[in-house]
Amino acid sequence: MIVSLIVAMENNNGIGKDNDLLWHLPTDMRFFKQTTTGHCIVTGRKNYESIPPKFRPLKDRTNIVVTRNGNYSEPNIKVAGSIERALEIAKELGETEVFIIGGGQIYKEALEKGLVQKMYITHVDTNLEADTFFPKFDRNLWKTKDSISLPKDDKNPYQAKIVIYEE
Ligand SMILES: NC(=O)c1ccc[n+]([C@@H]2O[C@H](COP(=O)([O-])OP(=O)(O)OC[C@H]3O[C@@H](n4cnc5c(N)ncnc54)[C@H](OP(=O)(O)O)[C@@H]3O)[C@@H](O)[C@H]2O)c1
To answer: Whose CA is nearest to atom 15 of ligand 1?
Structure first.
């Protein structure tokens, strides 16, 4: 099973503010949906609760929520007490590629523990105030596998580039 993460960050690695995203970028959202549909996704409890109730659990995906709260329960999700346990659940389900979808704490812990083999990073070309960040990572340790430019347009206020990195 490949362990991937997927994230969108601005020029200073900002990913969120006030438990929300920094932008509305429909083309990137579409990429996220296409890439993760049919797979298990692993999310921190805070990121999960930042998804509007009518859109969660994210549909057509097995939502695995990581929390230290042993009593946590919401309909139609799986709950894990650690990232490692969440990955085990995905493996037990026969997953081939699991996606860690954030937020900041979960990305940081997953990278520090060396759990991630592939990263789908949307680099959003803007500078915005954030309170949650993607960790700095050593680009020399990652090979660029592919990249896709997302132009700015009427509905997408910033230019962006999706880069797929592999270990
Ligand atoms: N731009 C993007 O691509 C993107 C993607 C995802 C999220 N975000 C943003 O990121 C922000 C949320 O990130 P965050 O860092 O505040 O929170 P988070 O990583 O989503 O969730 C943190 C929570 O996860 C649980 N947790 C963390 N480490 C754990 C461990 N080792 N074992 C068990 N449980 C653990 C804890 O839940 P309990 O407190 O319940 O124990 C903790 O409070 C929001 O602003 C969101 O919009 C942005």
So the answer is: 104
